[in-house]
Amino acid sequence: MTKIRITKEYHFEMAHALPGYDGLCKNIHGHSYKLFVTIIGSPISDKNSPKCGMVMDFNDLKAIVRKEIIERLDHSLALYENDNNRNDIIRATENVVILPYLPTCENMLEDFAVRIKDKLPANVKLYSIMLRETATSFAEWYAEDNRC
Fold first, then answer.
1. Do the Cβ atoms of 117 and 125 come closer than 8 Å?
2. What is the pTM of this model?
3. What CATH code is carried by the domain that includes residue 83?
4. pLDDT above 70 for 84
5. Residues annotated catalytic, as ranges
């Protein structure tokens, strides 16, 4: 059967800090993130299905990513759980997400992949994720590189 990849783009705003980093990113700062989620599968061939001809309804993919990632992180401050300044920072803001990892693009992609791939229908697989942190900087995750 024909395999097709579909991609959905998302946007969210998030601040973070990288404690221990040897550059400016050790300080709290924010980004306008762009997230691209690509899945792969064969289009549904059941002529009686309202999803006939689709690998997956874009709205269904949107619902998964919004619930697992966007609603959790949009307009938040993401902090590493072992940040020594965490408690002082938490008292100063409302929407803080404590993560078990440093909130780098690379670590966030690994987390996003875990959160998304098991929520997809059985007939599709997560193919790749790209997270753009700035206009010139992004990270990518590919299933083929991660044995998924």
1. yes
2. 0.92
3. 3.30.479.10
4. yes
5. 25, 75, 133
